[in-house]
Amino acid sequence: MRSGMPVAEPGQTVGLLGGSFDPAHEGHAHITREALKRFGLDRVWWLVSPGNPLKAHGPAPMAKRIARARAVMDHPKVVVTDVEARLGTRYTAETLQHLMALYPGVRFVWLMGADNLAQFHLWKDWDWIMQNVPVGIFARPDTRLAARGARAAEEYARYRLPAETARLLPRRMTPAWCFLDMPMLRLSSSAIRARGDWRKGDTDSR
Ligand SMILES: Nc1ncnc2c1ncn2[C@@H]1O[C@H](COP(=O)(O)OP(=O)(O)OP(=O)(O)O)[C@@H](O)[C@H]1O
Ligand SMILES: O=C(O)c1ccc[n+]([C@@H]2O[C@H](COP(=O)([O-])O)[C@@H](O)[C@H]2O)c1
């Protein structure tokens, strides 16, 4: 295994929460705890992105975002990691392909908020992701309508697992996805950035 990469044993289930985490907040921690509990995951890795390919502006420096993320989510089953920077990947499909090759026997689950479901069909090779990796999706304030009409949700409607059977998701044959409705937290990184101090003094990290 390359240095700095997280550890996982064959047979384990690992949820992957990719994000800019610019900065991390309690909303991320909340969906992570829900993912561990309701999907019964062994671990969740936070993949702190070198930069969302669909966003025009680069995020705060990686080290700063990682430090904040670790402060927000200090949990024995959660690893905050810069694997995409280490692997040199930015697109999720590429990251998943690398991780599946590097960790044979580990069952990865892609985790995301409902806002990302709404635009999932714009992601590179999104179809490949749906075909090869179970996907867990979390309700998010103000995204219900967009998520319901999402192209990915429509095209893969018959592969949706009822929330009552969420624990089956990690080992389910793909395609498989599950939408979790739960108490929602109205928190976002953009709202935190808009309030002020987080980006002061940064240079663009890209
Ligand atoms: N409050 C929340 N409820 C549900 N999902 C969330 C919440 N906050 C973030 N997420 C999800 O966590 C992942 C990483 O989020 P990200 O780092 O982009 O934070 P963000 O708050 O969405 O940022 P921004 O406001 O800059 O778009 C995404 O899949 C996003 O949908
Ligand atoms: O692969 C893609 O085309 C793609 C397009 C948009 C977003 N993503 C990933 O989705 C995750 C959430 O992104 P963000 O910026 O909303 O935090 C993060 O891991 C991004 O790399 C991936």
Explain what the structure shows.
The longest helix is centred in the N-terminal third of the chain and has 13 residues, at 26-38. Strands 3-2-1-4-5-7-6 form a 7-stranded parallel sheet, with helices on both faces. Strand 2, helix 2 (62-72) and strand 3 (78-81) form a beta-alpha-beta unit. The two termini are 26 Å apart. Helix content is 33%, strand content 17%. It has a domain at 32-41 and 114-123 and 134-200. The protein is globular. It has helices at 26-38, 62-72, 83-87, 92-102, 114-118, 126-132, 144-148, 151-155, 189-195; strands at 13-19, 43-48, 78-81, 107-113, 135-138, 160-161, 177-180. By secondary structure, the chain is an alpha/beta fold. Bound molecules: adenosine-5'-triphosphate and nicotinate mononucleotide. One of its GO terms (molecular function) is nicotinate-nucleotide adenylyltransferase activity. This is Probable nicotinate-nucleotide adenylyltransferase.
Short description:
This protein has 206 residues and is of the alpha/beta class. Helices cover 33% and strands 17% of the residues.
Layout of strands and helices, then pairs:
Elements: E1 13-19, H1 26-38, E2 43-48, H2 62-72, E3 78-81, H3 83-87, H4 92-102, E4 107-113, H5 114-118, H6 126-132, E5 135-138, H7 144-148, H8 151-155, E6 160-161, E7 177-180, H9 189-195
Parallel strand pairs: 1-2, 1-4, 2-3, 4-5, 5-7, 6-7
Distance between the termini: 26 Å
- Percent strand equals 15-25%
What overall geometry do the principal axes of the alpha carbons give? globular
Please describe the biggest sheet, giving its number of strands, its sense, and whether it closes into a barrel.
7 strands, parallel
Count, helices: 9
Bound molecules: adenosine-5'-triphosphate, nicotinate mononucleotide
**Mean pLDDT reading:** 93
Structural class category: alpha/beta
Strand line-up of the largest beta sheet: 3-2-1-4-5-7-6
Portion of residues in helices?
A: 25-40%
- Which segments are poorly predicted (pLDDT under 50) over 5 or more consecutive residues? none
Q: Order of SSEs, N→C?
A: EHEHEHHEHHEHHEEH
Alpha carbon gyration radius: 16 Å
Give the tally of β-strands. 7
EC number: 2.7.7.18
Catalytic activity: nicotinate beta-D-ribonucleotide + ATP + H(+) = deamido-NAD(+) + diphosphate
Protein name: Probable nicotinate-nucleotide adenylyltransferase
Pfam family, one: CTP_transf_like
